[in-house]
Amino acid sequence: MTYTISPLPHVKSKESVKSVMWGTVAALVPITIAAIYLFGLPALTIVLATVVAAVVTEIVIYKAASQPITIRDGNAVLIGLLLALLMPASVPIWVPIIGAAFAIAIPKYIFGGTGTLVFHPALVGFAFLLAAWPTLMGTVSIPNLGGFSDLLLETGAGRLVEASPALVLLGGAFVLYKKYVDRRVALSATILLLLLMPIVGMGSQLPYVITGGYFLGLIFLAADPITSPVTKKGRLVYGTVLVLLILIQLHFDTYFAGMCFAVLLMNVFSPFIDRNTIPKPIGGK
Amino acid sequence: MIIPLQQHDGAVCDSLVSVGDIVSVGQLIGDGEFRIHSSVSGEVTAVSELPHPTGKDVLSVVIKTHDGEKREIEPVELSAGKIRRIIKEAGIVEPNGHPTLRTKGDIDTIVVNGTNTWDLSSYEAIMLDHPSKIVYGLKALMETVGAKKAFIIIELGSEALNTMRTETIPDSNIKVIATPGYYPPGTENTLSKKFAKKKVPRGSTTEDRGVLVSSIAAMKAIYDALRDGEPMIKKVVTVAGAVGSPRNVLVDIGTPIGYMIKECGGCSGTPVKIIVNGAISGAAQYSDEVPVIKTTTGILVQTERDIEREPQAPCINCAWCVDECPIGLMPHLLYGYADSAQFDKCAELYIGDCVECGMCAYVCPSKLPIVQIIRYGKHGVAEMEASE
Questions:
Q1: Chain A CA closest to residue B361
Q2: What's the whole-model pTM score?
Q3: Is the predicted pLDDT of residue A38 greater than 60, yes or no?
């Protein structure tokens, strides 16, 4: 009788990169449906076009480079969906398509693909579109027009993701529970931001922060595992500094794009934070 | 019966018997820095290098048993001064290979590990069956080393929690602690830091800080040695996985694991992997002729269906391994540096501190063979240091 031998461990948890990515996509389904309900057909076309553009771009690039195609891991779908949700409902359909192609080609593929990339591809795609076509990307969102019920369905929303803060939080709670995004980053950033704003005298701007866009930014984008730090201490530092950057941006009143650029800026510091917060192992002097 | 002459962390014992000798239960057959006793009566048929659960071949004594020839073991008369000698001579070993009585220094606290992984439950079985013996053994050990307090660590939700709590009510210096975590053997420093609140600097042991980390199995073995005069010749072992009737069994040391699997209903399906000491931290065996030794706590049988063969993906920096590491290392960085042969970086990140418990590779969503590569890294660091 011969037996297989292998190094330990001999069982592995059920979670895989695939389940992390597709699980995160699943968490975004409720808010996507709410956006389609609120904005109608344009939202549906934006979502479909962006996701398809991301997937097709990935297939084409990886095929051209004769590398294994990793569409099944769900990363391209996730990037496409996140980018679509950041779009204003009124945007012409070709804009997010270009954004998705850019997001896959430059920040994802050029930077080495899943795992090694530095900047969150969906955010880079968004920043690129904002810089290229500011007029098309600009939108007027006036949160909390209808009071408390706007937490469920935001009638003043301009972007897809702002359709419902409550549904973004619902998806967020799921990914936080499953640890698909980093708990320390997401919770430290969200709680600190909501606590600090009244303290530094920006309480009147709170409605602009209690939106789907901000919750998506803090939970799904900032706490994205690939681009956020790894050390336990580093993740708290990351969340804290991010909040300070957001507060500075908010002071100059660019409420949504400001948050996105704050996260992108923090992406740069992520390796730096990691390197300087390497923990001492138990027994370390 | 196959009784290896190395069942602890240290040198192989010298054989005191040779082919043709008749041995009886409890007879000393190996001596040196440690002691090994025969668990059966019979005739020595071979003294040679044979497969060992660690994967290498170790000098072992093979005994052909004579049925019904069990020697009566005489109970030992107890006097305080004798306890230390008896425990020492009984050859009691922890599951990680450390002798239970390994220090002459001052010990203040004893931490008894009673946590098991999901596929093993031998500690729980001992606690449920013999709670009073465990407390007896613990008290004897406390008296021997002069410890003032002791903690028994049990997983939350374990049935043994109530049993042990009830048993230790009269003793204010023994505390049962429920924990959500699991502590693989070898994480003595972690247990010391978390429960005895004593941090152990690199290069020294928990004993240097006055903390002795032991296990439930050792407490029972101390009782057996003191009250029944029985050295460590039996072990409670969990037989789990793809077998007819998975259960905990009390076996003589030296029993081949193939025999135990047969006794527990045999394999259900074709066995592909046999693992000693747990699915996460255990070692896969290439032969079922390997005997149960003093450090054995469980045997797990896996069929093709149970074996993980998912393809690898790149590391996504999810930090689950960092959160899980009981030592506080950065497993994903060690993996990356070792994989690219940057051994100086591995050494900077304290690769030598890794106890190879396997938790990082268990949680890894990218299915990276982290432990395998870390072992390679340790090897590389050793070579690098040797060449300097």
A1: A9
A2: 0.86
A3: yes
